[in-house]
Structure formats: C-alpha cells, structure tokens
Design goal:
The chain is built from 3 helices and 6 strands; from the N terminus they run ββββαααββ. With 166 residues, the protein is an alpha+beta fold. It has 2 domains: 132 residues, no CATH class; 30 residues, no CATH class. Helix 1 runs antiparallel to helix 2. The chain starts with a strand and ends with a strand.
C-alpha cells in the first residue's frame, strides 16, 4: 500500500512558494504516514510530522491520511484567502496537525519536548513577536515588587510596596 498527496501553496508574497507532501507507506512490519511542508524555492523543510501504525491498523492509518489531506487543503485555502505571508504556514501547520491521531506520532527523545506536544501554541506569530511568551501576559511582572518596612519605636510598622511598571 502506498498513497500520496501533494499540495502546492500559491505564492502569496511573490517571493516564496510552499508544497506539502502527505505520504502513506507500508513496510513488512508497519505503516508510516508523513506530512512534510517544504519551501519550494529554497528546498528546506518548513515543518514535518510522522505517525506510525502496526499492520493491523491499516484502516486507522488511511483515515488519518485522509484527515491530514483535508487539513492541508484547509490550510491552503486559509493562507491564500487571507493573503497571509508564507512563513506563517509553519505555525498554522503545527497547530492544525497537533492533535491529529496524537498517540501514533513519533515519540521525541526529550521528555520536555514530548510534554510540549500537549501545550497550546501560537498559530500566527504576527499576533505577538514573542509568540505569547512575554512574562506580563501571564501576570508575572518583569520586576518583582519592592517592599520597604520601617519599624517605629512604638511598635507600628509601615509597609510600602512599589509595584512593577508592567
């Protein structure tokens, strides 16, 4: 069994072109599904994802293949209709394929990277140049408040806090 689908993204910024190849291949022991987004001009991979299935789960693999093809076609429509810059495709693809049959994806060698698969990410880096990771967005001040305590002889205490500027 071998299935393949190629989607070419129109050049929205007159400088870049992208393709996505979704491939389903079967070997003697397992079935592997891959989705690879490539920069067609410079020939470097933009984003890739892989799923592995035992031979008994061929129907599930084909179903995931079809789902991936639909997701990629939806990404193409959104990218072209919104006239988005090409580099936004990487984040959009990562978020769109994040939960597609997540338990059959390759396991990363790092526990922190594996745990990060389940965290919400940013689909469009243009919304925040820092990818929504600025400390003040999570109510963590950049500068901790300073506390000044003066103890008077009579037992009274004055506490002044200067809050962060953020």
């Amino acid at each position: 069994m071998a299935k393949g689908h190629t989607t070419e993204f129109n050049d929205t910024m007159d400088k870049d072109a992208y393709t996505c190849k979704v491939q389903l291949t079967e070997s003697k022991k397992r079935i592997v599904l891959t989705a690879v987004f490539m920069n067609a001009v410079h020939s470097f991979p933009l984003f890739s994802e892989a799923w592995k299935y035992p031979k008994e789960e061929s129907r599930r693999a084909v179903k995931t293949f079809n789902r991936c093809v639909n997701v990629v076609e939806d990404l193409k429509t959104e990218l072209e209709d919104e006239d988005m810059p090409g580099p936004t495709l990487q984040g959009m693809a990562r978020e769109a394929l994040r939960y597609v049959d997540i338990d059959r994806k390759n396991v990363t060698p790092s526990r922190s990277l594996e745990a990060a698969k389940y965290l919400d990410g940013e689909t469009d880096w243009r919304s925040s140049i820092y990818g929504n990771r600025m400390p003040h967005q999570y109510n963590h001040p950049l500068n901790p408040p300073t506390v000044n305590i003066t103890n008077n002889v009579g037992g009274d205490m004055n506490i002044n806090t200067n809050k962060s500027i953020v």
